Amino acid sequence: MTDPERKVNADLLVHCLNQLREQAGLDSDKIDQLLSILASEHGVVALGQIIEIIRKAGIQFRSKGWQAIAAAVQSQLGYTFFSSTRGADSAGMLSGLSEIRLLETLNSYAYTVGERQGLKTKIERAVHLREIRGVGAPQAAIPEFFSDFAQMLTVGFVRTGEYTVLPFPIKYLREYEDLILHQRKFAGRGTKS
């Protein structure tokens, strides 16, 4: 991602661009243009300063050629002077919204239940963290048993092909409890003729 406050080594960026000039698929003329713009920058500078220099030179990263150069810099140096989520693979950016995941938080464990199938482009609600508390077992044992627990969330008959958010035995135990309470509530009421 682009963080304008991040400190970067301008000399290392220039060195990276020189190396990228020989890489197939990248426009060497555009790289030369960037190199000429950045020639006066040396040492550690704010990334925002480099971005401002590039913008003042009139370079906009709308074409695929410029975007490919920015992506190559990001893969080499871990930062970029252009980032856009348009057309990006959302699954990589939103990995917490897919699958079933175990998280350790401050000596406790929680899990998330995302989408089984492809991610929707519109996120209507957040993925909830649900804390796991071991009964009769230490918290440290939870990762060992989580794969068995996760299998109880992957049944397709509970939520039309998606993961369940509670293990299916708990869901059906709650439904059974609701049925019993409903029967007790109405058991005393008879029909009068």
Plain-language structure description:
41% of the residues lie in helices and 11% in strands. It is α+β, with helices and mostly antiparallel strands. Strand 3 (100-105) and strand 4 form a beta hairpin. The longest helix has 20 residues, at 168-187. The protein is elongated, with a radius of gyration of 27 Å.
Strand portion: 5-15%
Q: List the secondary-structure elements in sequence, H or E.
A: EHHEHHHEEEHH
Distance between the termini: 74 Å
SS summary, helix count: 7
Rg result = 27 Å
Low-pLDDT runs of 5+ residues are: 87-91
* Number of distinct beta strands: 5
Largest sheet, order of strands side by side?
3-4-5
Q: Tell me the overall shape.
A: elongated
Structural class: alpha+beta
Instruction: Specify the helix fraction band.
Output: 40-55%
Mean pLDDT: 77
Q: What about the largest sheet?
A: 3 strands, antiparallel
